[in-house]
Design brief:
two-stranded antiparallel sheet, 627 residues, alpha+beta, 16 strands, 14-stranded antiparallel sheet, 6-hairpin_glycosidase_sf, globular, GH95_cat
Length: 627
């Protein structure tokens, strides 16, 4: 361990909060492991679990296209508050929140004696807790899509149940549990039906007991004097009833050879291959490398902390990428009232979370983004038609992973006006194609849809004959002297140019038309402070103290502005970065700042921004970021 970076982390005590539980996941199921020998809890999550609403009338894009020309007229005529009335009057509607399923719970009494240690191995995804002769091992199989837990101890005696009682669980849930004895243990089930809907989810756990006795003890089972217990758990989201017997049979079919070792080997063959593609070695002090994660977090200047956070970041990104990309909370939550709904935020957060996919050799993350994009394209088309009256596709700023409709907006967050989202979400798919030297036809088709939107949307011009992006929105900021919905946000200009030119590269037969449209967009504006202006429209003043850096989209993730090819614009962009405040001191703002500074060759600013994150209260003991 002393000569190489540590590919894992550890703690000397069980987790007290779900935020400090060690994490495992396969991109579909997730597990939060507390590691308490007397109340061994594993919170189970599943990527598709979002709480439905009985009233979905407001979960559609607003029908505003007929009013768009009048709005454009008013904005072009100088009415800088015109967009505040471009709404259908609905209140702010958050996307449906992500929530946990339940927790498997093993309760026993007695002190196992001996030292305690809780570890997670990033190379395998296995979380292990050891206290004396008691050992619990948990992983989530990428090969078999099942949560696996294996507990061993002499004379193992405990109660087993599936417990739905987690913080924030709403009233009115229809909860039903079941337990039946099997030849070598028990089969437990927990069905939870959401109020006011026929949608439900069911968890099924197969318990395989070695030695001792097993009896039913509703709502679960009681195991006495065993030597080992193996649990296999899956969650299904469904309407109607789930065939629990069939689910149990499917779990039993996974039991071959030495079950735990066989399951782990199948999973590790996939997980380890992906995780070990990249390693960061900063030649850290061996003594610091040996510290628990909580101890390293207290040493923000430590190279060992950077090594371990790099490793943990790749591990958590890989583990939460599959069915969907990582949510704001990855794949994990222990509370039904998940912060920010546990949503996908497309105007910075998801983009920053998955930004390293190509450079960190994690195509699994890009493929998960692609799954989200392609599943939601029909909804993106609805957004384009309803709000803008165009063909093509417009991505929403927020999503629950199911719906791609743009319905999360308000006067202060007119996110339905944002047109740059599709380009940002497609950028990692384009990067993936460039990395692999191939062109995915699905990416090509999506790019064409975005270009069609711009064909129909970019029809207004200024006095110089340049196209105008109107209305235009710079997430999540506003001009100092105007309202949020404005004209020619720098991000919108960069995204439109990039989308049109990228679509042209994928579609030579339409390249001339789309490149010509891109060439008619206006250049960026440099303001009186020498900074790249957030709005390239005369008279709109910059608001510098804000966590988002949307106006520097051309610097990162694009390469429209570089110190080599566009030195004057790069100088203006650097000035804009210097003037930008931190507003509410959000971690994503600091990291966005660091990425931009790296592109602009400012190492000192990169180090300062990373220092703000490392010294801030942004990581839990699990090394999962708080936001």
């Amino acid at each position: 361990m002393s000569g190489t970076p540590v590919h894992g982390t550890w703690e000397p005590r069980p987790a007290d909060r779900w935020e400090d539980a060690f994490l495992s996941g396969n991109g579909s199921h997730g597990a939060l492991v507390f590691g308490d020998p007397n109340d061994d809890r594993v919170i189970v999550t599943q990527h598709t679990l979002v709480r439905p609403s009985a009233d979905d009338r407001h979960r559609r894009p607003p029908q505003l296209a007929a009013a768009l020309p009048a709005l454009q007229d008013r904005l072009l005529a100088g009415d800088l508050t015109a967009a505040e009335t471009f709404t259908d009057g609905r209140p702010l509607q958050w996307v449906r929140p992500f929530h946990p399923a339940f927790q498997t719970r093993l309760r026993r009494t007695g002190d196992p004696g001996g030292p305690y240690r809780r570890t997670v191995d990033f190379t395998t995804g296995e979380v292990t807790a050891v206290h004396g002769e008691w050992t619990s091992r948990v992983f989530v199989s990428r090969a078999d899509d099942v949560i696996v837990q294996y507990v061993t101890a002499p004379g193992l005696t405990l109660g087993l149940c599936l417990d739905p009682r987690l913080p924030g669980a709403p009233h009115g849930l229809g909860v039903g549990d079941g337990a039946v004895l099997t030849p070598d243990g028990a089969l437990l089930s927990l069905r939870v039906r959401y109020p006011g809907t026929d949608l439900a989810y069911t968890g099924v756990t197969l318990a395989v007991v070695e030695g001792g006795t097993t009896r039913l003890a509703p709502p679960g089972a009681r195991i006495a004097d065993a030597t080992a217990l193996l649990l296999l758990t899956r969650v299904r989201r469904h309407t109607g009833e789930l065939d629990v017997v069939a689910e149990g049979r499917a779990l039993r079919d996974l039991l071959t050879g030495t079950p735990y070792d066989t399951l782990l080997a199948r999973h590790t063959a996939l997980h380890r291959t992906a995780y070990t593609r990249v390693t960061l070695d900063l030649a850290a002090d061996p003594a610091e490398r040996a510290l628990p994660g909580s101890g390293l977090l207290a040493r923000p200047q430590s190279p060992a902390l950077l090594e371990r956070l790099f490793a943990a970041g790749r591990y958590h990104l890989l583990s939460s990428s599959g069915t969907l990309p990582p949510r704001l909370t990855g794949l994990w939550t222990g509370d039904w009232n998940t912060a920010w709904s546990g949503a996908f935020t497309h105007d910075a957060n998801l983009n920053l979370q998955t930004a390293c996919a190509a450079s960190a050799a994690l195509p699994e993350a890009t493929e998960a983004v692609a799954a989200l994009v392609h599943r939601q394209l029909p909804d993106w088309r609805d957004n384009a038609r309803a709000v803008f009256g165009t063909r093509g596709a417009v991505a929403p700023a927020h999503s629950d992973g199911e719906s791609g409709h743009s319905y999360h907006f308000s006067r202060e967050y007119p996110l339905h006006l944002w047109t740059a989202g599709a380009d940002w979400l497609l950028k990692p798919l384009v990067d993936h194609d460039e990395t692999h030297g191939t062109r995915d036809p699905r990416t090509a088709a999506a790019l064409a849809e975005v270009a069609l939107f711009y064909e129909d949307f970019l029809t207004r011009t200024d006095t110089d004959g340049n196209l105008v992006v109107v209305p235009s929105y710079s997430p999540e900021n506003r001009p100092a002297n105007a309202s949020w919905g404005a004209l020619n946000a720098a991000m919108d200009l960069s995204a439109a140019r990039h989308a049109l030119r990228t679509a042209a590269a994928y579609h030579p037969e339409r390249a001339d038309r789309w490149r010509a449209l891109a060439d008619r967009l206006p250049p960026h504006r440099v303001n009186e402070d020498g900074a790249l202006a957030e709005w390239a429209w005369p008279g709109l003043e910059d608001s510098y103290d804000h966590r988002h850096l949307s106006h520097l989209y051309g610097v990162w993730p694009l390469d429209e502005i570089t110190p080599y090819d566009t030195p004057d614009l790069a100088k203006a962009a650097h000035r804009a970065l210097e003037l930008r405040g931190a507003e509410n001191d959000s971690a994503h703002g600091h990291l966005h700042h660091a990425l931009l500074a790296a592109r602009l060759r400012d190492a000192g600013r990169v180090a300062h921004a990373l220092g703000q994150v490392l010294a801030g209260d942004f990581f839990h003991a699990s090394l999962m970021s708080a936001h």
